[in-house]
Every structure is written in structure tokens, then in C-alpha cells.
């Protein structure tokens, strides 16, 4: 009989209702990583399979008494408050959500401050709760999260990995770890298992950059490669190290990594490596930003009319349906700014429309529109309207990938109000040397003089006496494309055509400025993946 081990976490503390008129001071967000060692073995014919709860279920780890959980707890940390935590560990023997039907493996109490205040913010405590039994140990690590909201989309393949299975080829998977200040590593991602091959191609995946390296592009990332075994005793193939900055170089000889098994290297004089891993990294990132208004009033540009789309939704759909064809997975981070957020009324200029801080990606245009409409029901739209933070946000991401493998497009839909014109001009001038473009669609009847100035078609935008290296901004007023006959399909097609007209030339101008030439056409990809 096989089972699943679950770690259930309950945090007790004061919960504040959201009062949009008075927000509390934002807390520091910390990420808690959980590991266990030497758990009780409650399964007769196999080891326990760990799983944990944190206000909802996390992943199952099969057949191990020493689990390292990938999914994290992200908690608000208040230095001045005592925040009690309780960790319960269970061995799950079925799919039932009732904990009473599963084997209890142990429990520990602590405070969030106790974890944060431990040496290197790493707390190790014995599990208890079962009289006369040694229940093993739980290890809790905390790291303060940075403000980085970027996401990395990556794909890897491998070539000529070591054969580990006696009766067949290996079943490879990879485990990613970010380095900590004390020299230890924290698990942050596992790929899927690719069965029966020494030349696997893993599926593309997206991961928050702060989970991968907490926004530090030069922080060491360790990657281990294993051969999957059903009993949980996965065979170590080898490992390599890299950094997010290196991974951003995309597909090239610089992103081919030797997978090295240190023990084999010591034993065998002629040992070279246990295979190679290649990073493929090329995607167009589109960040969508929706601005303010009062959706409950029919006079608002955000008003949700049950019979027709509002101007924001129409502009999103018109432009997004064209540009999404240039993104491989059709997953887009969609953000809003200028709103008070629950639960504390904090004003944000960069919040996920889907409400998921850890994964703001939406599936295609339908997912974006659904998230947009849902956000109007949960946030209080609020000024001021600052453009510079979001321009700088995308610019930081683009700055890490200047080899031509990626190009970034920022779409801003606005009513024309801007509260930080000088800062925005400076941000655009700085961004003009990076692989990015900015599209601005103005909705409503306001004057858009500021947006026209940012466009820079007549006079190249400048800041502090410095001219922008390239023209990267395209502005169009939505009202110019409203068809009086009601033919929205035709008018939105004209809008998309005009708003995207300058993107190809802007992309080419960047490539020429960096003397980047197109990559050669790749050779045909064989069915046995030997081209990796």
C-alpha cells in the first residue's frame, strides 16, 4: 500500500477586514520553505509519500521519509507581533480530504519570528505529538522576498545522459535550487519526468524570478539531474550551476552545460561528463496594464455593460488578439495599477488582475478579459496614476536579455491622466536602449497631449538633456477608431493595425543598434531528439 505524506500548516493571528479608507502599513513578505528528515514510516510496503497543506494542498512527494517540498508558504511578517504557527505532518493513504482518514506523523509549534530570528533564518525542530515515538525533524527556512515581479519562461533539453536503468534507458527529470547566503540551497522547481530516453526534451515552464533567485540575476542556481525510480530512490546523474543572467542568454553555445557527477569524476580518470543540458530561452513577453475609473457608475470607462464591452475591454481584445500570435504559450502577465487592494487598502501601481501575486499570468485574451472583469469587483480603483514604475519594471526584465533572443512589448491602456510625467520620460529614455516597445491606447474623451509627447513622433522624447536612442512609444486615441455605423470588428481591426504598425521597425532598429544578426535556420529536428 502506498501513501502520501502531508504537512498541514495552521497560522493563528489577527485578521483585519479591508477598509478602503484606512490601510495599515504593508508587512514584509517572507517565504517559508519546509523540509522533513527521518519521518515515521507508516506504510507497510513502501515509504511514506510526503504532502503538505498551507491554506490549501500542495504537492505529493512519493515514497520518501526525507521530503524537500517545492511549494512555499508566503506569509506577512510583522516584527512587532507574535505570529503563532503549527505544522502537522500526515501520511496520506487516499484522496480523501478528511485528515482523520490519514496517518498522523507528527507536529511542531513555533512562531514566525522564531524562524526569521534563527541563524541564517533556518529553524530545525523535532516533531512530536506521538507518545513514545521519535517522529523525525522538520526544517523551516525563511527568506524575505524582494519586490521583483518578473517571470522567467524557460525550456531545457539534454543530450547523451548516463544510462541508469538496467533494463532500459533513464527516465530523467531536473531539480532547480537557488543559493542562500549561508551557502545552502533551497529547492524551487522540479521538471516533469521524461520516460525512457537519454536525450529528453522537457516542457517549457514559467517561474517567478524571485522564486528562482529572489530578483538577484547573478545569484547561483544549482540544477541536479536524476533518473526517476518508482520506489523514490531516484538515481543521481549529475549537476551543474548557472545564474538567471546566464540563462537569459538564450539558445547558444554559452548555454550548454556539462552535467557532472563528482563521485564518478574522482573514480574514473577518463570521465568527462554524464551528458549535457541545453537551455532554450526565447519568448516575447507582453505585459498588459489597465488603469483607473469607477466601474459601478455608467459614466465610467470601466463600466461593465451586460450588452457590450467597455472601451478598455475592446482595446485589450483588439490589440491583444493580434500580438498574442507572437507568443508561444499564449500566457500573459496582466497587471493593473492605481488601486487600493484588499485586505488592508494598500495603494498599488502594479497588481495582478487575477489576484495571484505569485502567478499573474492569464491564458490568452479570454483569460485576460476574465481577470480584468473579476478585478473590478475586488479592488477600489484609486489615484495617482504613475507610469514610471511599470515602464521601469519591464525595462529591468529587458535589461537582462539584450542578446536579441527576446523582445518585450508593454501595452498600456489609459484615460490619459499621468501623475509622474518627468519620471516617465526618464524611464522611457533609459528603456530606449533596451529590447522593448511601449504601446499606449488612450480611452475616453480627455485631451491626450501628454501621451502625444511621450509618443515622440514629432519631437524625440528627452530627459535631463538626453535624447532617447530610439523611438519606442506608439500612441493612438481609441476614439478615433469608433465606427459610427457600429461596425466594431472593422474599427478594431484598424486600431490593431495602426497601434502595431511601428513594432517591426522598432525591433529591427534595436537589433541593428546592437549589431545582432538573425540566427541561422536550425537543422531539422529528429524524432529521437539527437539534435539537442
UniProtKB/TrEMBL annotation:
Keywords assigned by UniProt, alphabetized: Calcium, Metal-binding, Repeat
Domain C2, residue spans: 9-127, 134-257
CDD domains reported in the protein's UniProt record: C2A_Copine, C2B_Copine, vWA_copine_like
Superkingdom as given in the UniProt entry: Eukaryota
Keyword hit for tRNA processing: no
GO MF, one example: metal ion binding
Family the UniProt entry places it in: Belongs to the copine family.
PANTHER family, per database record: COPINE, COPINE-5
Entries under InterPro entries matching the protein: C2_dom, C2_domain_sf, C2B_Copine, Copine, Copine_C, VWF_A, vWFA_dom_sf
GO biological process terms on file: cellular response to calcium ion
GO CC, one annotated term: plasma membrane
Residue ranges annotated for the VWFA domain, each copy included: 286-507
Protein name: C2 domain-containing protein
One Pfam family recorded for the sequence: Copine
Keyword Repeat: yes
